[in-house]
């Protein structure tokens, strides 16, 4: 599970919304389920109006996406994702509550492999099914801490070479200091 902070924007200017994301990925980061709270009103400064224009009030949103990794270099990997999103309010950005979700992001590991982070640009839109359809744009920065509280304890890790040797010798338990297999 990852949690973090984000902000809303639109291609013609900032909208000032604060986003609180909580995401869960599985199957080697191929799938993502996200819960998002847009916690503040989104306002667009427009020179045609004296007052900022209200684009969206605070709402809850959820998305389910399939992700594809398109590059991996050391601790960095780039990905794109597509899926569906649902939100509790319709607004000037999207007239529907059920939208398509797209994302472009970078996943990174910090030294020591105890922290994994993601910077993700997201867009929710109804694809013009119903107007208005400007779409909801927001960027998120999330982190996951590997606390070693969940998963296989290091004492229970079985070296891969020991498994191969044990099967080859009929059960002998030698060579435990080679590669690791959780």
For the secondary structure, the number of strands is: 12
Number of helices: 1
In what order do the strands lie side by side in the largest sheet?
1-2-3-6-7-8-9-10
Inertia-based shape: elongated
In terms of per-residue confidence, which ranges show pLDDT below 50 for 5 or more consecutive residues? 172-179
Can you give the mean pLDDT? Answer: 84
CATH architecture of the largest domain: Beta Barrel
Strand residue content: over 45%
Spell the H/E element sequence: EEEEEEEEEEEHE
Give the termini separation: 20 Å
Count of discrete structural domains: 2
Radius of gyration: 22 Å
Provide the structure class. mainly beta
Approximately how much helix is present in the residues? Answer: under 10%
- Which fold does the CATH topology of the largest domain refer to? Porin
CATH class of the largest domain: Mainly Beta
Largest sheet: 8 strands, antiparallel, barrel
């Amino acid at each position: 599970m990852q949690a973090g902070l984000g902000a809303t924007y639109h291609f013609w200017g900032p909208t000032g919304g604060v986003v609180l994301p909580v995401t869960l990925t599985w199957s080697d980061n191929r799938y993502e389920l996200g819960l998002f709270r847009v916690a503040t009103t989104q306002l667009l400064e427009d020179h045609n109006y004296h007052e900022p224009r209200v684009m969206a009030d605070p709402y809850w949103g959820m998305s389910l996406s399939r992700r594809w990794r398109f590059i991996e270099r050391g601790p960095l990997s780039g990905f794109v994702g597509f899926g569906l999103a649902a939100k509790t309010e319709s607004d000037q950005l999207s007239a529907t509550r059920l939208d398509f979700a797209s994302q472009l992001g970078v996943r990174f590991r910090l030294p020591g492999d105890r922290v994994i982070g993601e910077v993700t640009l997201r867009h929710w839109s109804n694809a013009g099914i119903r107007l208005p359809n400007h779409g909801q744009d927001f960027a998120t920065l999330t982190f996951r801490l590997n606390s070693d509280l969940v998963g296989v304890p290091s004492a229970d890790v079985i070296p891969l070479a020991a498994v191969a040797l044990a099967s080859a010798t009929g059960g002998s338990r030698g060579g435990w200091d080679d590669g690791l297999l959780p």
